[in-house]
Amino acid sequence: MVKVRIVAAENGPNLVEVNGQVKAALCRCGASNNKPFCDGSHKKINFQAPSAVAFEYEE
Fold first, then answer.
1. Is pTM, for the whole model, over 0.90?
2. Alpha-carbon gap, residue 54 to 56, rounded angstroms
3. Going by DSSP bridges, is the β-strand pair 21-26/52-58 parallel, antiparallel, or unpaired?
């Protein structure tokens, strides 16, 4: 069984989880120098956004 979730971390990136393990962190603040991946720039620019489950898939 495969379970995929994309979770928007509070004040941080979109986390791609596969079977409960984070496989990628995707930028959602727009400041990363390594787009589409997060490089931690959200901390430097004081990015603010709520957490939420953006997507869930289970097979």
1. yes
2. 7
3. unpaired
For the chain, the domain total comes to 1
- Tokens 């495969």 label which residue? 2
pLDDT (tens place) for every residue of the chain, 59 residues total: 999 999 999 999 999 999 999 999 999 999 999 999 999 999 999 999 999 998 999 99
Domain that holds residue 19: 3-58
> What is the distance between the alpha carbons of residues 19 and 41, in angstroms, rounded to a whole number?
27
CATH number of domain containing 17: 3.40.5.90
